[in-house]
Design goal:
The chain has helices spanning 18-21, 27-36, 66-77, 81-87, 94-104, 115-131, 136-154, 165-177, 191-203, 216-227, 232-235, 246-252, 268-277, 317-354; strands spanning 2-9, 41-48, 52-59, 89-92, 184-187, 208-211, 238-240, 255-258, 283-288, 303-307. By secondary structure, it is an alpha/beta fold.
């Protein structure tokens, strides 16, 4: 049994051929079901986004034919087999793991640590699960990559490789607060931002995460959507800010990440309500995600500390190289652990065949 990956990306193919490889609508479903039927293919997950198209396979190499697979891709792209061979890169076993681990972490991407590829990887797993084309091996592989990516984004040693805005917000908060654990957060933003902020804060052991939108229906909708992808324990820590709960959640929050141009949180009425809810001052950290963020917010009865999200985070070569070394060491450790498990499974299957 073997792990394989075949892929193309915008750097390996001509610009005019990009759409020949892209999988629109039902095309991805058709290909996954077709490839699953190729002799020797046990499991398949396809990772697609605007940059890459990668086929992850778990195969019985005594039966599987590389030629059959490549001829199938040639047929679907209406290209010559020789072109497919030249444009497609491939990896197997340990190299498949290393590649998936690196790209899921957003290394190398622009910016370093981008969440876009992590989102694509999660979607790939969910789609394969829906079609039932994955299995024990590939699901474990992708789960490991996703787990590594989340831990990597919270690791201070790899901060130079985490330059997305979402990571920056959490890094700045942690620098001021010392820890994110056991703290209460109020966050707002588009669904993409809120999903990953919530997941990372919960992974950092946040006490609660409250989702706030201008329309409370949107708050409730986002909370429900996110909770569906969390464990019961995690979901119990997330809340939607409503007209009934906003003042309580706001008075309790240790930190707030919000676009203050869209949502005016500290008007006179809100301040009065907070004073009623809370009898003593409480330090609260604010990050304004608007295009022109506020630099300060002075409210006599509140102890608000505004963090400037536009600050330029720069790192020297030594810090960058150290971050790369930390990531590579962790990836190598995980590869060795996975391959040990992989070999054990192969032995079990071989014994079953003999019996």
């Amino acid at each position: 049994m073997k792990l394989l990956m075949y892929g193309v990306n915008k750097e390996t193919i001509m610009k005019e051929d990009v759409n020949k490889y892209r999988l629109f609508g039902e095309q991805k479903k058709i290909q996954m079901n077709d490839i699953k039927k190729i002799d020797g293919v046990e499991e398949i997950i396809i990772l697609t986004n605007d940059f890459r198209n990668e086929y992850y396979l778990y195969v019985d190499e005594t039966v599987f034919s590389h030629g059959d697979f490549l001829r199938y891709i040639a047929e679907k792209t209406d290209k010559d087999l020789q072109e497919i061979i030249l444009e497609t890169y491939s990896k197997f076993n340990e190299d498949v793991l290393r590649h998936l681990y690196e790209i899921t972490c957003g290394y190398p991407t622009e910016p370093f640590g981008s969440f876009d590829i992590l989102n694509s990887v999660e979607k790939a797993v969910n789609y394969a699960n829906k079609l039932r084309t994955g299995g024990e091996i590939l699901y474990k592989l992708f789960d490991e990559a996703i787990s590594l990516s989340y831990s990597f984004k919270l690791n201070e040693d790899t901060q130079p490789l985490n330059m997305s805005e979402i990571s920056k917000y959490l890094y700045l908060l942690k620098k001021k607060m010392k820890t994110l654990a056991k703290k209460d957060f109020l966050i707002s933003g588009n669904t993409f931002e809120v999903v990953y902020l919530t997941k990372l804060l919960l992974l950092a052991d946040a006490q609660t995460v409250t989702i706030l939108q201008k329309d409370e229906k949107d708050s409730l909708r986002q909370d429900q959507k996110i909770s569906a992808h969390l464990t019961d324990t995690e979901a119990a820590k997330t809340f939607a800010a409503t007209s009934k709960s906003l003042y309580y959640r706001l008075s309790k929050a240790d930190a707030i990440i919000c676009d203050f141009c869209k949502i005016a949180l500290f008007d006179a009425k809100t301040i009065e309500e907070i004073k009623i809810m809370r009898q003593t001052k409480k330090i609260q950290y604010l990050i304004d995600t608007s295009k022109e963020p506020i630099k300060e917010m002075n409210k006599d009865c509140l102890d608000l500390h505004v963090i400037d999200p536009t600050v330029n985070l720069s790192y020297n070569d030594e810090q960058l190289n150290n971050a790369i070394m930390v990531l590579e060491e962790e990836i190598q450790t995980r590869i060795e652990k996975f391959m040990s498990h992989f070999k054990e499974l192969r032995l079990v299957k071989e014994q079953k065949i003999i019996q």
